[in-house]
Amino acid sequence: MSKPQLQVIAFPGAPNLPTFAAIEHGQFLQRGFDVDLELTPSSVYQAEQTAAGNFDIICTAFDNVVAYGSGQGAAKAGTSPDYVVIMGATQLELSLIVAPEIKTVADLAGKTIALDALTTGFAFVLFDMLEAAGLGQSDVEFVAVGATPQRWQSVQDGTHAATLLIEPFTSIAQFGGFNVIAKSTDMYAEYQGGVIATTRKTLQNEPEKVEAFIGAYLNGLGWVLDPANREGAESILSSRMPQIKPKAMTAVMRSLTSPKSGLTPLANLLDKGMEKVIELRSKYGGSATPISSAGDFLDLKLYKQIV
């Protein structure tokens, strides 16, 4: 007899490794669920599909939760995914990857830069990088391309000069001769990148789904972060993301398992990291309405019962 489905949507990338591991080790099945994991092509698609009721668990950027919770989401007006954060995921190192001929941020003047969407938190990190180098937003052209694989492809094929990447795409790009000219981890002591969220409706009406995901994910996370499991973790990541070549895997895993640039132990949230996200959205988001404190976007009661 088949198990009920747990519908999960996430961005492509190495930070999904705890979920991959939990699936491989049967952690969801042990908790009564099978998992349907979809990788989103963009934050807008993720929000629209969640608003339509198609997903129970959303692995997304903390800024996406803040944006839609503050009425500043990038999707069309009226889209309300009703996100609420149930635990943390990553510190997330955002790297500004550029074509081989570009050596500094100043060299981007007059060039096009690929983004997921033009009003997301990662875009705001980019704006901050440019400002720190003396470039204004009008000095470059921003183009909404979608999630990391699409953005990386647009730089590879020369359509755009730069984009922000996460692992494993950062290491793949560097091994391919592309340059990293700025990193979020060089600018901020903490930045809350990824979080695990659900919808308030799911949390209220189907808490068993949320409990199952939290428990399975934490098991997968603990296994991934145990150095004794490094070879097995690399094997799972390689099978799920075959584009990671063996020569890049060591760098990918080193970044992913560092709490300064990747997965946070016990899926902890970073208080100062969440404050940084809100600070950047307040600075670049274009709204005169003050954004609520981080606590207004969180509901950690189930997480605290399980952790």
Order of helices and strands: EHHEHEHEEEHEHEHEHEHHHHHH
Overall mean pLDDT: 94
The largest beta-sheet arranges its strands as 2-1-3-10-4
Strand content: 15-25%
**Which class best fits the helix and strand makeup?**
alpha/beta
Top-tier CATH class of the largest domain: Alpha Beta
How many structurally independent domains? 2
Under CATH, the homologous superfamily of the largest domain reads Periplasmic binding protein-like II
In whole angstroms, the N-to-C terminal distance is 30 Å
Could you tell me the number of beta strands?
10
Largest sheet: 5 strands, mixed
- Seen as an oligomer or otherwise, the chain set is single chain
Rg over CA atoms: 18 Å
- Share in helix: 40-55%
Description:
The protein has two domains: 5-92 and 191-306, D-Maltodextrin-Binding Protein, domain 2 (3-Layer(aba) Sandwich), CATH 3.40.190.10; 95-187, Periplasmic binding protein-like II (D-Maltodextrin-Binding Protein, domain 2), CATH 3.40.190. The chain contains 14 helices and ten strands. It has helices spanning 17-24, 27-30, 43-51, 62-69, 121-132, 148-156, 169-175, 184-187, 200-205, 207-225, 230-240, 246-256, 271-284, 301-306, and strands spanning 5-10, 34-39, 57-61, 83-88, 95-98, 112-115, 141-144, 162-165, 179-183, 194-199. The strands form two sheets. A five-stranded mixed sheet has the order 2-1-3-10-4, with helices on both faces. A five-stranded mixed sheet has the order 7-6-8-5-9, sandwiched between helices. Helix 5 (121-132) links the parallel strand 6 (112-115) and strand 7 (141-144). The longest helix has 19 residues, at 207-225.
